[in-house]
Structures are given as C-alpha cells and as structure tokens.
Amino acid sequence: MIEFLWNVYLIAMATLVFYLAIMNLKRNKSRINKTNGFFFGQIIIVGLFLDFVMNVIVGTLFFRELPREWLFTYRLNRHLEESSGWRLRMAAWWCKNLLDPFDPAGSHCGR
C-alpha cells in the first residue's frame, strides 16, 4: 500500500512539474520557433499523457469516482460547475492553489 501511495504522489508531482513547464512555454510562446518547438512539443505531449494518468489514478482517488473526462482540469471544471459539498471544495482548492496562480491568463480552471 505504501508503494502504491508513493507512486500516486510521484504521478501528481511529475504532472505538476510538467504543468509548470507548459505554462512557462505558454508565457513565452512568442520565443518558440521551429527548432526549439520540436523539443518543447515533446514536453507538451508528455505533460498531456501525465495529465491523463493523473486524472485516471489521482482524480479517481481524490474524487471517489471514475473519470468522465480525459484530463484532470476538465474534471475540476465539471465539479466547479455541477458539484456541491466536498467535491466542489476540493476542485476549487486544486484550481486556486495549484493551477490558477501559474497560468499566464490567471485562471486555468473555467468558472
């Protein structure tokens, strides 16, 4: 059980690191050209894959439901729009503390 929880933690941390990298690329998109875009595109692909894995594993554990969406942010958005109680509070916490502050637009989660 400890090993499983450790792996869940590592998935969440890796996903957040890639999220920060992708938001930095978004912030600096005017500097991306064909040469470096090839390498940065790979970061986006890995980040999307990790987001999918996080949604399936971490999202399922945290929200105690099977995913209906492909990506974790989409699950958060659904809970912000449709849920109440602890799921709404949890989705708001993820958005307010971990995602929105690092999105160049200031709001990663739709409201």
Structure, explained:
With 111 residues, the chain is an all-alpha fold. It has one domain. The protein contains four helices and no strands. Helix 1 (2-27) packs across helix 2 and helix 3 packs across helix 4. The protein is globular. The model has no long low-confidence stretch (mean pLDDT 95).
Task: Please summarize what this structure is.
The protein is mainly α and 111 residues long.
Number of helices: 4
Strand content: under 5%
Q: Into which percent range does the helicity of residues fall?
A: over 70%
How would you classify the quaternary structure? single chain
- Given as residue ranges, the uncertain stretches (5+ residues, pLDDT < 50) are none
Biggest pleated-sheet summary: none
What order do the SSEs take from the amino end to the carboxyl end, as H and E?
HHHH
Mean pLDDT: 95
Distance between the termini: 36 Å
Radius of gyration: 15 Å
Total domain count: 1
Structural class by sheet pairing and helices: mainly alpha
According to DSSP, the number of beta strands is 0
Instruction: Give the overall form.
Output: globular
Task: Sum up the structure in keywords.
mainly alpha; 111 residues; single chain; 73% helix; globular; 4 helices
